Task: inverse folding
């Protein structure tokens, strides 16, 4: 089944403790993105990647890092999480061709206390 | 960053009624996508519209793209409880730089 897999689905952590949210897709997609979703603010893009070793900032990149060492994986790294990064996070991917539509993962709900 | 305004923000109607939700921008869309998101899940693509004046149908859902490509609408005929969800419009997707989303319309269809 074609899918984007995120782990973990739920995570509670403490301020300052480094964490990584993994994202993997099995569709051989070149393009991948990370979003956060907050009440009243909607979905906002954090980082995106055009292909292996090519990443760029989205609209809200502060406090986040990403890497793209393999085509299928696009982890989101929070070096020193803070409570304002409590949010619902989504990873998404798509092919450069086709109907422009992204396939989204099921989300990671992160709470930073 | 292009701003997308969706209306209404919330809509609750009875099963069997028709409804329309809107997505507007002050700038021209390169392309526009509609997604539906259910609680606890990621958005799922419903349709992409690219050409001004385009109309696409997906069962009871009809999507229109304005002639000037600055607005779009989603019309649902004979709404069913299974249509309940958050409907999102998003601009972009032509390149690798992802999507800009509207804040969505929360739709509840009551049996």
Result:
């Amino acid at each position: 089944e074609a899918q984007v897999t995120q782990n973990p689905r739920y995570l509670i952590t403490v301020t300052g403790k480094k964490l990584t949210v993994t994202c993997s897709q099995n569709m051989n997609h070149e393009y991948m993105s990370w979003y956060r979703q907050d009440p009243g603010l909607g979905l906002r893009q954090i980082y995106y990647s055009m292909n292996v070793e090519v990443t760029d900032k989205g609209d809200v990149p502060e406090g986040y890092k990403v890497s793209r060492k393999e085509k299928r994986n696009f982890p989101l790294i929070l070096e020193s999480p803070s409570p304002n990064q409590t949010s619902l996070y989504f990873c998404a991917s798509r092919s450069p061709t086709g109907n422009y539509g992204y396939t989204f993962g099921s989300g990671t709900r992160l709470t930073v206390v | 960053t292009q701003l997308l305004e969706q209306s209404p923000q919330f809509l609750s109607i009875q099963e069997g009624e028709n409804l329309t939700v809107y997505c507007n921008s002050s700038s021209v869309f390169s392309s526009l996508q509609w997604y539906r998101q259910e609680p606890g899940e990621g958005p799922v693509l419903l349709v992409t519209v690219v050409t001004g004046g385009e109309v696409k149908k997906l069962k009871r859902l009809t999507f229109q793209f304005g002639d000037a490509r600055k607005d779009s609408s989603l019309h649902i005929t004979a709404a069913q409880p299974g249509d309940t969800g958050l409907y999102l419009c998003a601009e972009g997707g032509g390149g690798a730089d992802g999507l800009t989303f509207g804040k969505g319309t929360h739709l509840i269809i009551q049996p």
About this structure: The two ends of chain A are 36 Å apart (CA to CA). Chain A has no helices and eleven strands. The first strand of chain A starts at residue 4 and ends at 7.
